[in-house]
Amino acid sequence: MVKTVLKSTTALIACASLAGCAAGSGLLGGGGNYDINQTPEPISAQDRAQGAEYHPQLMAEFGGEYTGPGGAYVERVGKNIAAQSGLANGRDAYTVTLLNSSVNNAFAIPGGYIYTTRQLVGLMDNEAELAGVLGHEVGHVAARHSERRQAEAQRNSLFGTLGAILSSVFLGGSGLGDTLARGSLGLAQAATLSYSRGQELEADKLGALYLNRAGYDERAMATVLNSLAAQNALDSRMMGRSETRVPEWASTHPDPASRVQEALAEAQKYDAGGITARDQFLNNIDGMLYGDDPKQGIIENGTFIHPELKLAFKAPQGFYLVNGTRAVSIGGQSGQGQFSMASYNGDLDRYVRSVFAGLSEQQQVQPSSVQRTTVNGIPAAYGVARVNSGNGQVDATVFAYEFSNGQAFHFLTVTQAGNTGVFNSMYQSMRRISSSEAANVKPRKIDIYTVRSGDTVRSIASRMSYSNYQLERFLVLNDLEANSTLRAGDKVKIITY
């Protein structure tokens, strides 16, 4: 959550929109008719103009460009694989950006703009996987999959609002829930709306074709999908969920686990022998930032700490936090929410009411009253509004805080009617942090470790800079099994401060 970005609008972060492919023509429909060997339509002047317009907005939505080690490398690999598509002549026709985001995501938009996050790159194991993911995204553009999604987004007036989605499991398909799920959808989410099953398979095939043309191992599409499926499963386990609802590439690109076998079958159509360039890949990502950027705040064991805004709060028991560029989302079985900020003119009561007013165009949402209080010495105000949704009545709560630097922050939560108390501990946990506590917030990075004689999977995993799930994180990060044997001289990724 970045201070400078948050000032523009009240953001609603994705909580339930990430569960599958609701866009397009359904999970099993759409796509499937594109000849992967045909010459794609070239990048038009209209596409280039559209891409140039959306590019800076997408950059802001995803934390800006990551300019540290690896940025130029990702750009070079991306331009090379994009050139295999034939969309444009020459590598310079493409703009490839490594984004400073801690979610696993990659996407492309018309006009030759291709993106991946540093977090997704960190999950990869070699250059062929990087090329495969970027090639997959280029494949969506070559097959013009985005045109249908953009048309739907424009019909719903999605573009022009830089926000995200708050759609609780309690909200139905109409009224407030529908507005939150669609009308507040921001450009970044519109650009990465879920593809249909058929479109995914087409993009997988195109990704494999581009890998073959560039001389890479075509099996990389399958191996990176396997890593994404493993990361999904681990995320769910760490959050105590039966399914993952995290903003990530595997959510907007549905069901990576079931696509592994299809990707392997596609790879078998080509002659084996392509390169993976693993050592080159590892050398170029060594030292790359991993996880939350402290400038955007960090989440540690259920607590969000922002060293620049000098604040912290803790999720209620049984809930999880997901950090985003514009907001922090809060998820759990009994409620959903977000933490963000909006413009503030010094009137906290008006601030609370303005957040409610922005929730729905179809119905007026306002609390019966706004109550004033103090939380850990911070002036605060809150209100609750009961709203009729497609699944019955729900309670929307806005709990806002006034900080001495002239800024205000707020929680927006949604629960079943009468169940607002599940978030009370979180509201009361908001506190200022000292300069010394802020200074102790340290970034994590990827460190390429060379295995020594006597090292084991477990001994190396113990070097990971986490207090929990050290082994599990290490295994997923390196595409290893618990019984894998490591040899002296092997290179693996570990996460350190």
Automatic annotation (TrEMBL):
Presence of the UniProt keyword Hydrolase in the record: yes
Cofactors (names): Zn(2+)
Signal peptide bounds: 1-22
GO terms (BP aspect): proteolysis involved in protein catabolic process
Pfam name, any one: LysM
GO cellular component, one term: membrane
Keywords assigned: Hydrolase, Metal-binding, Metalloprotease, Protease, Signal, Zinc
Taxonomic superkingdom: Bacteria
Residues of the LysM domain: 447-494
Keyword Iron among record annotations: no
MF terms (GO), sorted A to Z: metal ion binding; metalloendopeptidase activity
InterPro entries hit by this protein: LysM, LysM_dom_sf, Mito/Outer_Membr_Metalloprot, Peptidase_M48
Protein name: M48 family metalloprotease
